[in-house]
Amino acid sequence: MMKLLLVLSALVAFAECFHKIPLIKGKTAREALQEEGIWEEYRKEHPYNPMAKFYQSGTESMTNDADLSYYGVISIGTPPQSFSVIFDTGSSNLWIPSVYCSSQACQNHRKFNPKESSTFKWGNKPLSIQYGTGSMTGYLASDTVEVGGISVANQVFGLSQTEAAFLAHMAADGILGLAFQTIASDDVVPVFDMMVKERLVSQPLFSVYLSSNSAQGSEVVFGGIDSSHYTGEIAWIPLSSATYWQINMDSVTINGQTVACSGGCQAIIDTGTSLIVGPNSDISSMNSRVGASTNQYGEATVNCRDIQSMPEVTFTLNGHAFTIPASAYVSQSSYGCSTGFGQGGQQLWILGDVFIRQYYAIFDSSTQTIGLAKSV
């Protein structure tokens, strides 16, 4: 009996170290704009620039990704004020709209009111975040931030005063960056680093599960790995740079032939980008190999009836092969079918949600490795 009690108490303790944030798969900006009939006009004015956040200029950057749709709820302040945020492994700052912002994007999102929090403190630095289509400006402050049942005291975050117009179409209120402090604007300690520093998580790692199609089940787990979300072995891949979650990619192959990343390249695992993005010539090569034709907006469209016969694409990362079937890299909507391979123009590849939906991703900051395993 005693042994059973010990096992039960161990299981309870184990369950407690899991801090899960359910992610909502909401309507994307693209879907909202298509419904309003202004998507094409918007795309002309704001060409897709997924690399915007990866240009180092001393200011923190974000991408204008019209397809982002996974977000979770956090709270800030005492008593808590709730906000939906994108958990973004491709940036490092937390920011939300404030009551001092009069931009259109702040009018249709929840805004933080410092006067209503007894634990709020203003910082003394301005914050500027660059987007592909403009910027967000504001100020740094600190307060208690609660994420998945973990309460982080004195967390520094940004409060917006102005926001780029396209953010009005984003479902989430703000962004919570999960990359490293080395790329944080104003050298702010990121939320996850604070959790580790204050020993608020049982292990210095977090993991991400993105469900396919259905809106249910996606989540970020802080401090643990949920084995119910994957099958088989976890492949551990060392980081090539602890800035973004950056790794070595050996090649991209279709039917055993290298079609992109010949001779190796750098890739980042990025929950804050919806597509798989690479250099223009490589992406063109992949899209033509799978039978897609590219329209004037750079979107690679396919006939929805061809999905069954389209080839798999294999990404080899540090000697491990990760294969994505056509059913996963083609997105279907009432507006037709398009591939999830986007042109980025630089040497850095982004393996975004199209990839992460297929592979459960574990981000370990202490060993500086990424674990990938086949999603269930």
Task: Summarize the entry for a quick read.
16% of the residues lie in helices and 41% in strands. With 376 residues, it is an alpha+beta fold.
Backbone shape: globular
Radius of gyration: 21 Å
**What share of residues are in beta strands?**
35-45%
Mean pLDDT: 85
The largest sheet is:
9 strands, mixed
Q: What's the β-strand tally?
A: 28
Discrete helix count: 8
| Unreliable parts | 2-16, 55-66
- Determine the N-to-C terminus distance: 35 Å
| Helix residue percentage | 10-25%
Question: Structural class of the secondary structure composition?
Answer: alpha+beta
Structural overview:
- The protein is α+β, with helices and mostly antiparallel strands and 376 residues long.
- Helices cover 16% and strands 41% of the residues.
- The strands form 4 sheets. Strands 14, 15, 16, 17, 18, 21, 22, 25 and 26 form a 9-stranded mixed sheet that branches. It has a 6-stranded antiparallel sheet with strand order 1-12-11-27-28-13, with no helix packed on it. Strands 4-5-10-6-9-8 form a 6-stranded mixed β-barrel.
- A hairpin with a 2-residue loop joins strand 8 and strand 9.
- It is globular.
Task: Explain the layout of strands and helices.
Blueprint lengths: L1 H15 L2 E4 L1 E2 L3 H8 L2 H7 L14 E2 L8 E7 L4 E8 L5 E4 L6 H4 L13 E11 L2 E14 L2 E13 L11 E4 L13 H7 L7 E5 L9 E4 L7 E9 L2 E2 L2 E10 L2 E4 L4 E5 L6 E3 L1 H10 L3 E2 L5 E3 L10 E5 L2 E5 L1 H4 E4 L2 E4 L1 E3 L4 E4 L1 H4 L2 E6 L4 E7 L1
Parallel strand pairs: 3-7, 5-10, 6-9, 17-26, 18-25
Antiparallel strand pairs: 1-12, 2-4, 4-5, 4-8, 6-10, 7-8, 8-9, 11-12, 11-27, 13-28, 14-15, 15-16, 15-17, 15-21, 18-26, 19-20, 20-24, 21-22, 23-24, 27-28
